[in-house]
Design goal:
The structure is a homodimer.
Chain A (H helix, E strand, L loop, with lengths): L11 E6 L17 H14 L5 E6 L10 E5 L3 E4 L3 H13 L16
Parallel strand pairs in A: 1-2
Antiparallel strand pairs in A: 1-3, 3-4
Helix pairs in contact in A: 1-2
Chain lengths: ~110, ~110
């Protein structure tokens, strides 16, 4: 019988798309929409909140550019569009602190380019 | 009652650590161990294999530098150390094509710095 997978290394692993395309590209890009500063803010706030087992990383193109800035939280695989620091705070508080969701900011299967 | 989460956007979402620290840093870094070329190779091979619903992304520091080059596959949250193209091929074939594991290359809870 196969061994079970090791326990999760992070309770919540957040990937913020920081891909940048040239100005004027038809799909745009998350970095062109300000994702790098939002990633920095999210990392700093997660640290200030003392969230254990939570890691916030930048990532290459997550391929949902049209709805950026985008992030995805694993293992649950929940995607958000966050455009402001206030929206980052909402995701931190509702999802990462309380384990809930922010439905208003979530990407769904209807968000396809 | 809460809505269920949307269906997964990717069947398997691979993040390859491409963080680079200065030469001589005591933890080293995945990029200094060759992760960028391995990421490029994995992306290209995944495409050649026609793997549907699989995305290979670069990521910032995944914080398991000592065991790099590292990658993690979500939603299952399984981590691997891959040092060569042949090891990337093993992960592609066993894990991403067949849905199994490559225990020899997996990081476990004993892999802590």
């Amino acid at each position: 019988m196969d061994q079970p997978d090791p326990p999760p290394f992070f309770r919540a692993h957040v990937f913020v798309c920081c891909n940048r395309r040239p100005d004027g590209h038809k799909r745009g890009s998350c970095a062109a929409r300000g994702s790098e500063a939002l990633r920095d803010y999210m990392k700093a706030r997660a640290k200030e909140l003392g969230l254990k087992g939570v890691r916030v990383n930048q990532a290459g193109c997550l391929d949902r550019c049209e709805f950026g800035p985008t992030l995805v939280i694993y293992p649950e695989g929940v995607w958000y569009q966050v455009r402001t620091r206030e929206e980052v705070d909402e995701v931190l508080e509702a999802h990462l602190v309380k384990g809930g969701r922010v439905p208003r900011l979530m990407l769904t299967e209807t968000h396809v380019a």
